[in-house]
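[recover] target loaded
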């Protein structure tokens, strides 16, 4: 009888020892994993909004849609939102266009002069990123529309954000415009940082 109790204790003791070690290991790893999870990526949005006037008449180039000045030499790291984040440009992990909209501001006007539009990004001459890369588009704009949202591509713009500036341009299938139209162009860039 004593022998069977002693054998039982010897059998149970290693099981209890392994269970105790697992509980101890879990109690150490849980706080560590929670701490590491807090050291992940932070993120913030940078909204850019500006207006432009599309002049009346036939376009000189049916493929060009003039965008506001803010989009021509865009410096995301010079925005208030970037400054308020407390991060530097070297901390950037990714920059993506998440929303873009074209809205008519002129009362009674609409976007009937447009059938489609495409947004592109490119870097300045000598940057190695001079070629245009499409980052958003809209097609089949419904007659009478006064606002359209672009479908945006999941393109990481980090390399462009690291430059002194980048240019957002637009191409469009457009027709003649009887009267000048004021447009608001709104874009939101989502920035993830370490």
């Amino acid at each position: 009888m004593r022998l069977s109790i002693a054998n039982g204790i010897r059998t149970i003791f290693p099981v209890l020892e392994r269970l105790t070690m697992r509980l101890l290991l879990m109690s150490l790893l849980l706080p560590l994993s929670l701490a590491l999870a807090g050291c992940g990526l932070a993120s913030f949005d940078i909204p850019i909004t500006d207006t432009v006037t599309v002049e009346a008449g036939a376009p000189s180039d049916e493929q060009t849609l003039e965008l506001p000045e803010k989009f021509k030499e865009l410096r995301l790291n010079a925005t208030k939102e970037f400054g308020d984040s407390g991060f530097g440009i070297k901390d950037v992990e990714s920059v993506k266009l998440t929303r873009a909209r074209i809205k008519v501001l002129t009362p009674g006007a609409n976007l009937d002069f447009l059938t489609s539009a495409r947004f592109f990004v490119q870097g300045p001459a000598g940057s190695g990123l001079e070629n245009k890369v499409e980052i958003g588009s809209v097609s089949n704009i419904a007659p009478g529309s006064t606002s359209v949202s672009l479908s945006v591509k999941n393109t990481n713009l980090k390399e462009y954000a690291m430059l002194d500036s980048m240019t957002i341009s637009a191409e469009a299938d457009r027709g003649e415009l009887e009267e000048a139209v004021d447009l608001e162009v709104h874009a939101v860039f989502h920035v993830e940082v370490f």
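[recover] notes: Confidence is low (pLDDT under 50) at residues 32-38.
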